[in-house]
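User: Can you model how magnesium ion sits in this protein?
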Amino acid sequence: MITTLSGAEVWNLSTLSAACVGIIINTFHDDGEPLIASMAFSGIAFALTFSLIRWLGDVFMKANLKGRDMSKPKKIEIPETMGAVCAVVYLLTIIIFIPFPFYKDIVAATSGGGNEESVIGPQFVQTGRSLHRFPHNKLASYLSAILSLQSVVLLGIGDDLFDIRWRHKLFIPAFASIPMLVVYFVDYGVTNVVVPVQLEQYLGKMVNLGWLYYAYMAAIAIFCPNSINILAGINGIEVSQSLVIGGLLLANDALSLYVAPSTPFPHPATDPHLFSIYLLLPFMGVSMALWWHNWYPAKVFVGDTYCYFAGMVFAIVGILGHFSKTLLLLFIPQIINFIYSAPQLFRLIPCPRHRLPRFNARSGLLEPSVIQWQQPPPKPVALLMDMLANLPLPLLKVEKNSTGEVVKSTNLTILNLWLVWFGPKREDRLATELILMQALCGVLGLFVRHQLALWVFRQDNRE
Ligand code: UD1
Ligand code: MG
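Assistant: Here's the modeled complex, given as structure tokens:
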């Protein structure tokens, strides 16, 4: 592991940082254009994360934050939990960014910010400054996002340090989402869902889900972080899938903002989408720096911290941006992987500590990894496995002994399934193909959301 920056890297990163600082200072001359400032902050976050990952590699190794790369001929140890670096830089960035989206409001609501000479009239003596004009609700959303994220990052670091049990860590994101759900309740509170045209005659135009809607949002907060963590185990896959989801969410925001100005009044979707952009841009910045080091052949591992952190960023923008259903369309591979993994997650089929594909040292390729059955599986499970293995497109591979009992079967992850379908592959090839599939599913998801939605709903609200 290289622990210093090369001369060219120092030059490039310093130039990038200096340009970004210049842009941020410049935004003060105008009215503090927050979108431009957010981009510049993301550039600085990239440079900082990139450098810190290099500098801290050895420190992490010494603190025993390391892992063995299992898909290489020499199973060397490299630093793990580098997602913690991303998460810390990210949190600092969005905290420093707080004044920017509220700059105009601060100027309007206080006598400061270039408004010093205005005198507070006697009518304001009781109320002080006209702070009621300040959008406290927007600030509350932003702060609750930070609070929820911090809780999840704590969980991630705890998991990387102590390997928390599955059943315990499953629910922590649900608790972490409470601040955000409270803000949702007070600020927005919509728990109605639009009914597809075909079902309107039975259910009416809208159905109020009430508290169930909050349970649904908590479920999203549990699902997003965990689903990224279980679609993992080959170099680069965790960060790449997050970059694709983040990129498509940004495209969706841009699309919504592009359409919004055509209305004569500020479109209601504008603010949530801007909010989403402010949270996603620095996420892309820190993730790209991590990607650089985690792509094949990996120099660092991302750790569970990154998976939880990334998943929670998505859950937060989906929920507070009011587009949680669109978000799920971008999680199609993760949803399929979760459903496919369910028999192992719920212990119908044994679940080993690791399910990542097996490295064949002779060929240098990855093959589907298998479970060794100590005792033959119970009858119904064996029957189900037989059925899945004999489909025209087999969903798993089994190996039987001479008496017809299952002795081996492939682990149920889509990484293994891909190898069952298309044969052994090099690690980077497998990662690239899966990421292309993720991107394709996402683009298709957004297309369905914006084009085909009109078949089942009366209008596309572009939210
Ligand atoms: C989850 C998966 C597990 C998978 C693991 C890999 C479930 C229920 N759990 O467990 O099946 O094996 O992620 O991340 O699906 N590693 C590599 N190469 C990589 C990335 C990771 O060899 O590119 C290995 C390293 O030894 C690393 C370890 O995986 O130390 C990290 O595993 P960890 O994140 O702790 O596993 P879980 O998230 O608990
Ligand atoms: Mg993990």
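A couple of observations from the model: The chain has 18 helices and nine strands. Residues 7-108+135-330+428-455 form one domain.
User: Helpful, thanks.
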